[in-house]
């Protein structure tokens, strides 16, 4: 079983566990509801039993005569009195008994209706399991890929470089060297892999140490780039010093002097910008006898604070050095996973309409994929003349007057070598237009 199948099984199992949980909850609720209905029915039987006893007693009393049983006149008189008193017999149920019965029936109907609704909702969840299985166990994911893309040696080498760079970013240099050796990458490409990712590998190592609550390397790095960080109004240097100060305070009374010396040494240049916050930090000494974990400053000891600090460092460091915090491989994989469901759907539609030739006949996707902002690294230029997005085959061109149009629009508007800008009356040589990059 490969990784895709493992992930698919895990996804289906997650939905299945959710349905099983609902089923168990329904079973518990149904047992409780049925118990309540049984109690109501028992109460109803008792009420009806009391009513039956009352009626029996009344009927028996109406049959008692004043004469002897042996006296024919008495028998006739008794029969006559019985016939006369039967129409006037009292009601079988009193108003209170009728009210109890109506309440019991109403409550039973409500509980039965509730059970029916919960069962219907559960049936809908169960029916979706089949759709979840179909969605996760797609018959052919390879139908959405260009199988000829990796036949080109250059494209294959680019893929190997992207994978090797990803390993270097994670500090797995030995794995990257093994991959380089097995794919027979040239020395030039191999050197580029390590040179281009060396800076991030160092940043990544510091990021890992911050999560382990080790701040020495991070503090040395921020001191080296202190002025650049201040110019960019970065918060990371102060936050690292703040965390180091709170770390010293958390050690107790024996480290109080060291914490005071550290604050006087490193908070000096932040005194103007963070005056109020520094004053609050110094107030933490009041809680040293009882322990910082029992004070309002205990949130500084939480792991969430260290995790947040590590990611702020990673973001600010990457921005300062002009490198991406995500590897090219991770960006491509995540963007591909986002686009895959839409591509599978359009592939099925194109196959049903027998227009699959359009899929392999162009270098662009047949539909527009709306990616998340984290996958957008540059602006996209659309030609204002042809209303088309530029591409490698149709790049944007800047005219001598400063306006930008697509290469196709440039050829359509030019008359020989003469081109008149569609936005201003400047005439120019079409060959003087230069390609620009966004």
Would you write up a description of this structure?
With 438 residues, this protein is mainly alpha-helical. Among the domains are: 3-133, Helix Hairpins; 153-201, no CATH class; 378-438, Herpes Virus-1 (2-Layer Sandwich). The protein contains 15 helices and five strands. The protein has a three-stranded antiparallel sheet with strand order 2-1-5. Helix 4 runs antiparallel to helix 5 (173-182) and helix 9 runs antiparallel to helix 10. The longest helix is centred in the N-terminal third of the chain and has 60 residues, at 3-62. The chain starts with a helix and ends with a strand. Mean pLDDT is 79; it is low at 63-90.
Task: Name some characteristics of this structure.
extended, 3% strand, Helix Hairpins, Herpes Virus-1, three-stranded antiparallel β-sheet, zinc-finger, single chain, two-stranded antiparallel sheet, 438 residues, mainly alpha, metal-binding
Summarize the structure.
The chain is 62% helix and 3% strand.
Task: List strands and helices in order, with pairings.
Blueprint: H1 3-62, H2 72-85, H3 95-136, H4 153-169, H5 173-182, H6 187-211, H7 216-224, H8 226-231, H9 236-249, H10 256-266, H11 275-282, H12 303-321, H13 328-352, H14 357-360, E1 396-398, E2 404-406, H15 407-413, E3 418-420, E4 427-429, E5 434-435
Antiparallel strand pairs: 1-2, 1-5, 3-4
Helix pairs in contact: 1-3, 4-5, 4-6, 6-12, 7-9, 9-10, 9-12
Domain CTLH: 199-256
GO molecular function: ubiquitin protein ligase activity; zinc ion binding
Zinc finger (RING-Gid-type): 383-424
């Amino acid at each position: 079983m490969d990784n895709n199948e493992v992930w698919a099984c895990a996804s289906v199992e997650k939905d299945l566990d959710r349905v099983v949980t609902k089923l168990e909850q329904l079973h518990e609720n149904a047992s409780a509801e049925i118990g309540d209905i049984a109690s109501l029915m028992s109460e109803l039987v008792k009420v009806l039993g009391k009513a039956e006893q009352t009626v029996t007693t009344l009927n028996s009393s109406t049959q008692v005569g004043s004469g002897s049983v042996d006296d024919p006149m008495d028998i006739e008189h008794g029969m006559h009195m019985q016939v006369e008193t039967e129409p006037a017999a009292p009601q079988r149920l009193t108003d209170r008994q009728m009210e109890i019965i109506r309440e019991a029936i109403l409550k039973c109907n409500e509980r039965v209706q509730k059970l029916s609704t919960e069962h219907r909702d559960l049936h809908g969840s169960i029916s979706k399991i089949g759709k979840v299985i179909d969605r996760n166990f797609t018959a052919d994911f390879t139908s959405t890929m260009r199988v000829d893309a990796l036949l080109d040696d250059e494209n294959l080498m680019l893929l190997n470089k992207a994978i090797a760079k990803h390993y270097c970013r994670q500090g797995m240099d030995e794995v990257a060297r093994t991959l380089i050796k097995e794919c027979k990458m040239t020395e030039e490409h191999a050197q580029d892999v390590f040179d281009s990712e060396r800076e991030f590998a160092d940043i990544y190592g510091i990021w890992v140490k911050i999560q382990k609550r080790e701040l020495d390397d991070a503090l040395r790095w921020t001191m080296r780039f202190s002025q650049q960080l201040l110019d960019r109004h970065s918060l990371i240097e102060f936050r690292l010093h703040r965390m180091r100060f709170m770390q010293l305070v958390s050690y107790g009374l024996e480290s109080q002097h060291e914490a005071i010396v550290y604050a006087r040494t490193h908070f000096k240049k932040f005194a103007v910008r963070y005056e109020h916050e520094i004053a609050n930090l110094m107030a933490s000494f009041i809680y040293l006898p009882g322990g910082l974990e029992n004070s309002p400053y205990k949130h500084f000891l939480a792991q969430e604070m260290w995790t947040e600090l590590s990611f702020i460092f990673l973001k600010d460091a990457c921005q300062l050095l002009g490198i991406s915090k995500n590897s090219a491989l991770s960006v491509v994989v995540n963007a591909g996973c986002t686009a895959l469901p839409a591509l599978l759907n359009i592939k099925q539609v194109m196959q049903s309409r027998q227009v699959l030739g359009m899929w392999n006949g162009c270098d662009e996707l047949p539909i527009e994929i709306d990616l998340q902002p984290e996958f957008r690294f540059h602006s996209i230029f659309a030609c204002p003349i042809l209303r088309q997005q530029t591409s490698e085959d149709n790049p944007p061109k800047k005219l001598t007057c400063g306006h930008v149009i697509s290469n196709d629009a440039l050829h359509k508007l030019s008359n020989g070598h003469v081109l008149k800008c569609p936005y201003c009356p400047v005439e120019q040589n079409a060959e003087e237009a230069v390609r620009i990059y966004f």
